[in-house]
Structure formats: structure tokens, C-alpha cells
Amino acid sequence: MTVSLPSAGVAVPAPAVLDQLPAATAASEIADAPRRRLAGLDGVRGLAALFVVVNHVFLRAFPGYPVDKAPFWAAWFIYGRFAVVVFIVLSGFSLALSPARHGWRLDGVSRFARRRAWRILPPYWAALGFSLAVAWLLVRPPGQGAPGSSSVVVNGLLVQNLVAAPSPNRAFWSIAVEAQLYVLFPLLLLMVRRRGAILMVAAVTLVVAMVGIVGPHVSRLDVFVIQSAPDLAALFAVGILAAGIVGASGRHRSWPWAWLALAAVAPVLVTIWWQGSVWTLDHLFWVDLALGPAVACLLAALATGRPAPPLRLLDARPMRNLGLSSYSLYLTHGPIVVVVYELVVAGRVRQGTPAFLVSLALVLPLTIVFARAFAAVFETPFRRHRSWASLLRRPDRSVVPEARREGVAQQHHVADLAYVGELRPLAGVPGEVAVAHEPGSL
Q1: 313, HSE (Cβ side, Cα atoms, 13 Å)
Q2: CA 227, CA 223: separation in Å to the nearest integer?
Q3: CA 307, CA 311: separation in Å to the nearest integer?
Q4: CA-CA-CA-CA torsion for 94, 208, 160, 433, nearest 10 degrees?
Q5: I need a labelling partner for 85 at 20 to 30 A (CA). Which of 98, 180, 227, 415 fits?
Q6: How many CB atoms lie within 10 A of CB 51?
């Protein structure tokens, strides 16, 4: 599976932010006050989104999925699903940061729902229109039927992981899953308040594991496991647990979180290397769950400001800029990859490494530039304004804006979405077999 974290400013202790607000500030104003930025998270988000783009190019250039036919230096790009793990854990982490600082309470469920809808739906619907236009006028996603009215309704209502319809953009399934996780978010916070974060994660993981065990033996449930990836719920819960680091004691914050992340991920990577791509991609449900704790420890490390050298790299301006448009990059890259490969590369460049390198040279700059422009129109205005009245109101240039308070960062929301790759192929599930065949064979 995106994340609502600030992207600029100076991090200060939570009391310092509130102390600088006027004494008469209303509760709603406090909720709207600028939040602190955790350095490095935009960089993580941007790199993960870029990995998804490369993964989709990989799937076009190296047919035969789940068999990995790429050279060793490119072989790991077949695992685009691992970006799901990063984004979903990061989503739960970032959404829970504010509640973790305030007793694990939301500032109202309806307020949370309105803000999520305001933030994610306008760019999503715009990207849906863009994807439909590409599918109707240029080329549709391989393995998909021509999108029709059912595609518009199903994708527009964010139920494409539950209701079958030709998809103009196969990556959109994760947007629906993310929206459904938003519905669970207040309930998960309630469980944290009543029973604690660890028991909440244990309960969610137990339910998810039961679904994973029973699923292969029940056809409809197995299709649900593939199309909706319920393991993402456990990863989301792990991210919520990791957010507790912002309110943890000094003893817990001083733990070697980066080393714990390395220790958690090492056996998983060794297993993947030993078993190979076919086994790994056939067991993504369990591999995802195994990777979740490592990502959570990494986020805890970044939240505590360690280790410093990687943190500075992830917080460099190019990384932050990439992260700020990562939602748009995820939403719009799919149609661009298909157009470039099917209309420009296929049939002109030999499949395999040549096609992969040529496609990357064309796709990477094109998708990044397009995402920046798309974000400027469909994301940035909705980050800066919280309502249509505010968005449409012309600025009063006679009023001089108040200087920014020292230590308080400007809020830049980035949607909490999973920027994920395409689902793994499953016999009998339409639309998920294209990458396993030569172009034009379907």
C-alpha cells in the first residue's frame, strides 16, 4: 500500500507548539494548527513511489512473471509489492502521529472522514479521468477489457477491489483498500485506548492470519485475499503501533531502532534470495507480514532522528520534492508506462535489458515531471485549503500575513495511500495475467 505528515519546518516538542498558541485558542483551531514534520519520511515515500514506477517498467520489459528473468542487478525490481508494505505501514504510522500525542484520540470521526475525502478524492478522480482518456483514446492496460460505464462507477466509488469491472489503471485497487482501512482507523484507535497498542496489533494480526490460512481452501475467500490483500490491515496496525514512539519515554526512544530494523529484515531477505521469485510471489501474504516489523522499526528510527547520515539523505530537497508529488506519481504513472512501452518501445527494442533501460530513460523523467504538474493542479490547492469556500476565495492582498512562529512548521499533507504495484497473477482472475505473457499474445 501513502501520508499526512508535514513536509517543511523545524521539529519541536509537542508542548512547545501548543505553548506558542494564544491562550484563547479554540480546540478546533488547535486541531488546525501546523503540525511538526518528521524528517526523512517524504524521502521514504518518494523512493518507494519511484520503485513502483520501475517495477511496472520491469513487468513490461521482462515477461514471464512470476519467473524472474532479469539480470542480478535488476532482479529485485520484480518485487513491487514490497512498496505496498512500506506505504501501508507508513500510512498507519503517519495517521496515528497526532492521536498518539493526544491520548490516542481523533479530533472527531466525521472531521477525520471529511479531511481524508477532501485530501484524496479530488486528485484520485482527476487521475481516474486521465486513465480513462488514455484507455479510450490511446491504449488500454494489457489484459483488461475496454473500460465502460461500470468501470467509471466502480472505480469512482472506490469498490474496485470488491466489484469486478475492467480497470483503466490496475494500480487503483490499492486506493480502494486504503479507503476501507480509513473506516477501520477509529476502531483501531479505540482498541488502543481500551487494550493497548500491542494487543490491538495482536488481535488484528490473528484475524488476518486466520483469513490467510483458510483462504486457499475457500475459492471466494481466496479471490478476496488476492484482490483486497487483507494482510495490509495488519501492516496498517503495525504502523499505528510504531507511531507511539512520538510519545514514548526516553528509554524507549533511545533503543537502536535502525539496528532492530536491519535485524528484522535480514532473515526475510535471505529467505527471498534462497527461495527465489516464484516461491516469494506465491507467498506474498506471509512475506508482507514478515517485512512489516522491519519497516515499523525504520520509521521509529527516523522519528527519533537516527541514524543521522541516512536521515540527511532522505531529507535532502530532491527527496522531499519527490515525496511531495508521490501521490500524483502513483496515480498517474501507470497509463504513462503502458503508453510508452506499447506504442514506443515494444517492437522496436529487444525485450529484456535493452527494453528495460530504454523504457526507464523515457518513463522516469516523463512520469516525474507529469506528477509535479498534476500535483500543482490537483493536490497542492487541496493541501493549502480545507474547504471549497477557502479554495475559491480570492486572497486579500491588503492583509499582510502573520510571520510564521519560530519552531512551527507549515503543514503539507500527503495522502495516506498505498502506492503499489499490480497484483500478482492468479488463474481465473481477469486482468492479472498480462504480465506473464509476451506483448500482443492476449
Answers
A1: 6
A2: 6
A3: 6
A4: 110
A5: 98
A6: 19
C-alpha cell at position 120: 484524496
Work out the angle at residue 59's Cα, subtended by the Cα atoms of residues 56 and 65, and round it to the nearest 5 degrees.
140
pLDDT of residue 85: 92
C-alpha 254/C-alpha 248 separation (Å) is 10
The pLDDT of residue 11: 34
pLDDT of residue 62: 95
Give dist(CA 38, CA 389) in Å, integer. Answer: 30
CA angle, 321 then 324 then 326, to 5°: 105
Secondary structure of the chain as H, E, C letters: CCCCCCCCCCCCCHHHHHHCCCCCCCHHHHHHCCCCCCCCHHHHHHHHHHHHHHHHHHHHHCCCCCCCCCCCCCHHHHCCHHHHHHHHHHHHHHHHHHHHHCCCCCCCHHHHHHHHHHHHHHHHHHHHHHHHHHHHHCCCCCCCCCCCHHHHHHHHCCCCCCCCCCCCCHHHHHHHHHHHHHHHHHHHHHHHHHHCHHHHHHHHHHHHHHHHHHHHHCHHHHHHHHHHCCHHHHHHHHHHHHHHHHHCCHHHHCCCHHHHHHHHHHHHHHHHHHHCHHHHHHCHHHHHHHHHHHHHHHHHHHHCCCCHHHHHHHCCHHHHHHHHCHHHHHHHHHHHHHHHHHHHHCCCCCCCHHHHHHHHHHHHHHHHHHHHHHHHHHCHHHHHCCCHHHHHCCCCCCCCCCCCCCCCCCCCCCCCCCCCCCCCCCCCCCCCCHHHCCCCCC
d(CA 132, CA 126): 10
pLDDT in tens, 268-291: 999 999 999 999 999 999 999 999
pLDDT of residue 143: 80
The C-alpha cell at 9 is: 519546518
The torsion defined by the Cα of 215, 221, 227 and 230, in degrees rounded to 10, comes to -60
Cis amide prior to 439 (ω within 30 degrees): no
Q: If you search the block for the grid coordinates 485549503, which residue do you land on?
A: 385
Q: Is the dihedral of CA 288, 293, 296, 297 positive or negative?
A: negative
307 secondary structure, DSSP code: S
Give the closest residue to 429 by CA, choosing from 223, 231, 228, 219: 223
- What pLDDT, on the 0 to 100 scale, is given for residue 9? 33
Cα 228 from Cα 1, distance rounded (Å): 11
H/E stretch holding 16 reads: helix 14-19
User: What is the 8-class DSSP label of residue 343?
Assistant: I
The parts of the chain modelled with pLDDT lower than 50 are 1-35, 403-442
For position 257, what pLDDT does the model report? 94
